[in-house]
Amino acid sequence: MPNIRIPTPLRTYTNGDTDITVKGNTVGEALHDLTNQHVELKQHLYNEDGKLRAFVNIFLDGDDVRNLNGENTALNPESSLRIVPSVAGGCMYKHTLNMNGNQ
Amino acid sequence: MSIAVNPPPAEDVQLSNDEIIRYSRHLIMPEVTLSGQRKLKDAKVLCVGTGGLGSPVALYLAAAGVGNIGMVDYDIVEANNLQRQIIHGTSTIGQLKVESAKNRLLDINPHINITVHNNLFTSQNALELAEPYDLIIDGTDNFPTRYLVNDVCVLQNKPNVYGSIFRFEGQVSVFWAEHGPCYRCLFPEPPPPGLVPSCAEGGVLGILPGTIGTMQATEAIKLIVGIGEPLIGKLLLYDALAMSVDTVRLKKSPDCVICSSQPTITELIDYEQFCGMPLHDQTDEEGAGEEWDITVSQLNDKFKEGAPIRLIDVREDFEWDIVHLPQAELIPMGDLPGRLSEFDTTDEHVIMCRTGGRSAQMLQLLVSAGITKVKNLKGGIRAWATEIDTELPIY
Questions:
Q1: Mean pLDDT of the B188-192 span
Q2: B214 and B360 co-located in one domain
């Protein structure tokens, strides 16, 4: 089954897991399965309209899926996806509040 | 395919005998030779930031003989920098970072010119500051400055040697719009501030910026000498825990707002507004509002009076282990929403954290849940350790 590599900033929401095996024939289905397995990830990957957030980059076997067929890009069982986050370095702290206690 | 930043230097850029001795290990490499070393001497590189990334970048560029290095930083050296910012030292704590860095670089190599800019890099000064330089190193630590560095590089057609770090992972690339994608092609928008990992969730392995910074310096030297394959159109991903290095391919975005054929950004913008956060990493933590604050001395007085106050520390358990107040009880902020039933609306509460930001958030949560007899400890345990009990450690 396809595999998704989780970057450090998002591992808080996967119980520290770095590689997660997912079901799905497309990138979108694989991400959907990922967020079903780890519900807290959803708000970090998708906006309120259910679209992938613009700062979330998904790479399939080294290529940005935006340059392939987006979330409709087909997967095979050996596909390796990775989420590449926008990382600034240093340490920023700003306050938004939600009832999950995330910040 | 190799790409050089500059044409060969003018005839009058030559090496002295002292410089020939110093750079002899470069000169005998066929990829560098005297010609490449003269290019290094002629090069002008601006390091934005002299922190974790800027330290190894500047040290190695200076040692390699990059002839003109500019450094921008507004900060002073603090003890908690020294775990990773190796250009500075214990003897330079309290000095301007740019001055501390300049002295260290000239000690390594007196044959180079160092220009320091003791400023924040802002929309007002960035174009002018960057103008004399051939290549910009992004060694910053915040999103607004990263977008600013990118836009300056696109507008001035300069390579942006990018590096960023988080805990055990780093990213490196060369963004150069003339030859490939820019930072905005990869990251069209910054994450909203609420999704940026906080200080409590952040942190960085001290050696990581050393690894990433030396990769940036390597890319800079390749571009200056015009050798090898630069990381243009590629993003290198380094994971120190797995000791893995992967490279993904990047493409120029046809919709990029600044480097596409029809840009909508043609001049610098307000990057703090664009990112919703300040142009620096200092934690200007927003309080809950003055009416909700209690100072450390007011709280200390209340404890002396024997007032029945429930003091809740919302930091993480590993922070609690570093230092905590004996009167406090620990409820990490991630747990607090699920433990609201443990609060009695008739009790008086004070919420605290490291500096007062997280506790302000939790105060809002408590108030919205009807727990209104609550105050936020202004300045957190840092203020307590500074003003009330100076024997306590500060982190």
A1: 86
A2: no
Q: What's the CATH number where B338 sits?
A: 3.40.250.10
Backbone angles phi, psi at B39, to 5 degrees: -65, -40
Q: Is residue B76 predicted with pLDDT exceeding 70?
A: yes
pLDDT in tens, B235-291: 999 999 999 999 999 999 999 999 999 999 999 999 999 988 777 654 445 566 788
Does B284 map to a domain? Answer: no
Do B237 and B152 belong to one domain? yes
Does residue A32 fall inside a structural domain?
yes
Residues B345 and B259 grouped into a single domain: no
- Nearest C-alpha in B relative to A12: B201
* Domain membership flag for residue B35: yes
Select the residue of B143, B250, B338 nearest A88 (Cβ to Cβ): B143
Identify the bridge partners of residue B114 per DSSP, sorted by sequence position.
Answer: B69
Q: In this complex, is the C-beta atom of B141 within 8 Å of any C-beta atom belonging to chain A?
A: yes
Number of domains into which chain B is organized: 2
- Say which residues have a Cβ less than 8 Å from residue B51's Cβ, sequence separation at least 6: A90, B73, B75, B81, B84, B85, B97, B139, B141, B209
Look at residue B322 in the predicted model and tell me its pLDDT.
Answer: 94
Whether A47 and chain B come into contact, CB under 8 Å, resolves to: no
Domain count, chain A: 1
- CB-CB contact of B213 with B57 (8 Å): yes
pLDDT of residue B197: 55
Which one-letter DSSP state was computed for residue A90? S
- The token duo for A5 is 């590599």
The Cα–Cα gap between A72 and A51 comes to 13
The residue among B196 and B235 whose pLDDT is bigger is B235
Provide the residue range defining the domain that includes A61.
3-84
DSSP string, B177-238: TTTS--HHHH-SSPPPGGGS--TTT--B-TTHHHHHHHHHHHHHHHHHHT-S---BTEEEEE
CATH code, domain with A78? 3.10.20.30
B199 catalytically annotated: yes
* Residue A93, pLDDT above cutoff 90: no
Residues of chain B above pLDDT 90, percent: 81
pTM over 0.95: no
Q: Is residue B161 part of a domain?
A: yes
User: Are B129 and B95 part of one and the same domain?
Assistant: yes
Residues A42-72: tens digit of each pLDDT: 988 998 898 888 888 999 999 999 999 999 9
B158 min Cα distance to partner chain A (Å): 21
ipTM over 0.90: no
The answer to whether residue B220 is domain-embedded is: yes
Q: Which domain holds residue B226?
A: 17-275
Q: Does residue B353 carry a catalytic annotation?
A: yes
What CATH number did the domain enclosing B224 receive? 3.40.50.720
